[in-house]
Specification:
about 15% strand; 5 strands; alpha/beta; about 50% helix; homotetramer; 5-stranded parallel sheet
Chain lengths: ~190, ~190, ~190, ~190
Amino acid sequence: MKFHAGVDQILKEISTVLERLRSIDIEPVVEQLVKAERIYVAGGGRSGLMARAFAMRLMQLGLVTYVVGETTTPAIGARDVLLVCSASGETQVTVLVSRVAKDIGARVIAITANRDSPIAKIADTTLVLDAPHKGAPGEGTEGTRSVQYAGSLFEQSLLILTDAMALEVARALGKSDTELRQRHANLE
Amino acid sequence: MKFHAGVDQILKEISTVLERLRSIDIEPVVEQLVKAERIYVAGGGRSGLMARAFAMRLMQLGLVTYVVGETTTPAIGARDVLLVCSASGETQVTVLVSRVAKDIGARVIAITANRDSPIAKIADTTLVLDAPHKGAPGEGTEGTRSVQYAGSLFEQSLLILTDAMALEVARALGKSDTELRQRHANLE
Amino acid sequence: MKFHAGVDQILKEISTVLERLRSIDIEPVVEQLVKAERIYVAGGGRSGLMARAFAMRLMQLGLVTYVVGETTTPAIGARDVLLVCSASGETQVTVLVSRVAKDIGARVIAITANRDSPIAKIADTTLVLDAPHKGAPGEGTEGTRSVQYAGSLFEQSLLILTDAMALEVARALGKSDTELRQRHANLE
Amino acid sequence: MKFHAGVDQILKEISTVLERLRSIDIEPVVEQLVKAERIYVAGGGRSGLMARAFAMRLMQLGLVTYVVGETTTPAIGARDVLLVCSASGETQVTVLVSRVAKDIGARVIAITANRDSPIAKIADTTLVLDAPHKGAPGEGTEGTRSVQYAGSLFEQSLLILTDAMALEVARALGKSDTELRQRHANLE
C-alpha cells in the first residue's frame, strides 16, 4: 500500500518536472550530441551515475563518448561537447570541469535544477529540470514540490530525460536495436 | 512533441512494471536491508549504475554499504546481505558473485526481469521487474511491452523501485532529510 | 632506519623478479600492443589498478585503450588485444573475461605469477612475473622470495614492467613527451 | 637488452627519490594513519590509482579507509585523515578536496613532488618525493633526473613508499598476513 503510493507519487513528480521542458529546447541538444566529434559527460554523486548511464547508451549508439575522470578519457578539445549534470549547479568539481572545457573551446551543455547556477552561466546550452536541490530543498526554484530526499527527483528526471533523448538520438542516427546490441559490452 | 510522447510512454511503461510488484514482496526486503550488518550491491552495466545509486542513498541513511568491485570493499561475510541487480539474471560476473556470497552464508536478494534466471535461483529473495531483457527483447517474460532499447525499462524501474524502497528504509530507521545530508559526500 | 631497509628490500625483490624476464619475451608483446586495433586491459584488485595505470599511459601514447568494466568500454572484437593481469591467474572474473575475449577471436596477453594458471592456458602470450601469489604465498612458483604481503611484489613488478614497456611503445611509435602531454586528461 | 636497461634505470631513479626521505618524516605519518578514525585517500590520474592501491591495503589491514569520489564514501569529519597524492601539487580537483577537508578540521597529509605547491601549503604534514612533475619536467625541484615520461617516477615512488609504509602500519597494528587475507575482497 505505502509502497505503491510512493511509486505513484514519484512518477507524478517526474512527470511534472519533464512537462515543463519544451521540445524546442531538447531538439538542439540532440543535434549537438549527434554532431559532436566526441561527447564527454560529467557529474558528481547520483547525478554522475545517471550521466554515466546516458554515456553508456550513447556509446552503444555508436557515438564516441567518455566519462570525465575514468581511466582512459583523453583531453577534451574544441570540437567536443561536454554534458555536465548537477542539480544545484554549483558542485565545485563540476563547475571547475565546465570552466576548463569552455576555455578550451568545447561546447558545454548543462542539465541542472538551478537556472541561475554557475554551471548554467558557463554553459552554451542549459536544460532546467525544476526539482528541489541543495540550495532549494523541498521545492524546486520554479515551484515543483517533492516528498523525496533532495536530489532524488532531479536524478530520476535526469535518467528519464536522457533515455528519451537517447530515443531521439537513435532516430537521428537511424540505428536499430540490433546494432546497439553489437556494441554492448561483452566482457562481463 | 515527439519528446513528450516519448516521456509519457516511458513513465507509463515504468508504472506497468511496478504495479505488478506486491507490497508484501517489498516489505521483507526493506526489513532485511535494515537488519543487515553490511549491505553489498552488485550489477553490471546500467543496472550496476542504478544499484550504485541505491547504495549511495543507503550509506546516506546510515547503513554500512559497499559496492562490489570498488577499491575498499572488504570481504563479504555470513551476516551481510548482497543485493544483486540484473535484467537477464544471467550476466556471468553477476552470477559468479551471487554464488560466492551464497556459499559464504550471506543473504542474497536478486532484482531481475527473469524469474527463471540463475541469479533468481541462487537468491534467497527475488523481486521480479517484468521488463524486456537480453533473453526476451521487446516484451517481458510476463507480457510487459516496451518501445525502448532492451534494458532501459528494467533500469528505470530499478531506480524508481529502489528510491521508493529508500523512502521505506528511511521511515523504518526514523531518519530525517537533515540527517541524510550530514552523511552526503562533502569532498566534491 | 626500518623504513629505508624496507625500501631497499622491496627494490631488490622487484629487480630479482624482472631480471628473470627475457627481452625476447617482451618484444613481441610490445609489437602486438602497437599493432592492435584497440587494447583492452583487465585485472582485479591492486593488479587491476596497475593495469589501469598502463592503460592510461597507452592512451596518452595515442593507442585506443579501454579498461574492462568502465562505463563506455565497447564490445571487444577479433582484431583487438586483451591484456589481463592476475598474480594467481585464477581470479574467476579475470578467467571469465579472458575466455570470452579468446572465443571472440581477440588476442589475449596474460601477465601472471603462475605459469600453470587458467589465464596462462587461455592466453596466446604469457609473461610470468615470478612473485608469490595466493596459491604460493611467501615464495614464487619458481623460487623468488618476498617479505611483503602476498601480492605486493607482483603488483610492484607489474607497474615497473609496464612502465618499461611503455618506454618501448613510445620508441616504436616515435612519440615525444610533448605529444603525450597533449592527450593527458585536462578535465581534472 | 634495451628492456633490462630500462628496468635498471627505473629502479635506480626510484631508489634516488626514496633515499631523500627521512625515517623521522615517515614515522609520524604512519602514526597518524594508525590513529585516525577513518582514512580518506585522494589523487588524480595515475597518482590516484596508486593512492587507491594504498587504500586497498589499509582496508585489508583493518583500517576504515575510503577513496574520495567512490560511491559509498561518506562525508569526511574532524577526526579523519585525508591523504592526498599529487606530483605537481596543483591539480585543481585535488587542491579543492584538500581545502574542504582542512576547513572541516580533518588532518591533511600530502605526498607531492613540489614542496611549494598549494596542497603542500594546505597540508598539516607533507612528504616530498623529489621527482619531475608538470611544473618541472625532466628534473625534480631538488635535482632528481628521470628519463621517463613526467609523472612516472613520482607514481612508481609513491607505490613503493606507500607499500613500505604499509609494512610499518602492519607492524604497528601487529597484523599477520593471514588476517589481511581474511579481509581481501572475495567477490571477484
